[in-house]
Amino acid sequence: MRGDLAAVSRLGTVAPSDVVIPQPVLTEIAYGLERLPVSKRKRALQARFDLVRGQIGRAEWTDEVSTAFGRIKAMLERRGQRIEDFDAAIAAHALAASATLVSGNVGQMSRVSGLLVENWLQE
Length: 123
Hints:
By secondary structure, the chain is mainly alpha-helical. The chain has helices at 5-11, 23-35, 40-55, 63-78, 85-96, 106-109; strands at 20-22, 57-59, 100-102, 116-118. The strands form 2 sheets. It has a two-stranded parallel sheet with strand order 1-2. Helix 4 (63-78) packs across helix 5 (85-96).
């Protein structure tokens, strides 16, 4: 959403069919946009969001995602490392699909066992 050059450049190196967005990511972006006052910035971010939604496919919420979600939440709670539900849902989508999660939230996501995480903002 920020249009970071490193992330946009990296995105250009992968096939569009290899990139999907979990629905909870779209939900968080929509929430963030709704919180902003009407402004030029909000209109620009909304336009970018509309572009992203039109260009990138969705990761389905399947039974495997639900199972991974439950496993992630329970495991981290046992360790005393609670995680936000949307973050657990996003991680669960990647685990269920045996996919790599691209996130700037590497610190939190790296606590999820077996999750492959890349931060394209640092490349």
